[in-house]
Amino acid sequence: MEGLKLAPESPGASAEAALAFAMAGDSARAESLAQDMRKRFPLDTQIKSLWLPAIQAQLALNRKDPTLALNILQVISPVELAQFQFLANLSCLYPTYIRGEVYLAGGQGTSAAAEFQRIIDHNGIVWNCWTGSLARLGVARAKALLERNSAGAAGNADAGRIPPGDYKDFLKLWKDADPDIPIYKHAKAEYANLQ
Question: How many domains would you assign to the chain?
């Protein structure tokens, strides 16, 4: 919200704030900002083609409607890796990250891992966005999901124990993070359960 106060006319500040509200579960504020962006920036290619669909997909995921979220994100897929002339693509591959989260929520580990790996593989677009580091956690969670599923199918509880390397990569990257950050605490707990 502070970004909006500092740059109230900025499409980037509006888009980032709307997505942040959507990811935090504040659907009313996210939708209000999205409506405002539709009115103020009707011809902005990034807003129309990347940001608004990403926000709507996150809102659909919040409502436990993964089919709608994936349908919305399908529209974005041809352009989400694009670089627009004269503009930096500041999307941080949010649509790709959200798609990975949708697949995780739906128990589709292989598809989730592919989306998160896509972010890691395109670090030249992601730069220092948070999606880059959280994609590593997404890969770890997707692999853990796949292993749990194969262990359940095989009826062997020990088969669900996966090599914790992907979690180690994420935790090493975040080693100096505030220890009270919820996602960091969850990742550490998930890693401990693998031991």
Answer: 1
In angstroms, rounded to a whole number, what is the distance separating the alpha carbons of residues 172 and 191?
Answer: 12
Residue 117 lies in a domain: yes
Identity at 74, one-letter amino acid code = Q
Domain boundaries, position 165: 92-195
**pTM given for the model:** 0.87
* Cα 30 to Cα 57, 180, 193, 194, distances in angstroms: 12, 25, 35, 36
Residue with tokens 């989260």: 101
Residue 14 domain flag: no
> Euclidean distance between the first and final Cα of the chain, in Å?
40
**Does the pLDDT of residue 68 top 80, yes or no?**
yes
C-beta neighbour count of 9 within 10 angstroms: 8
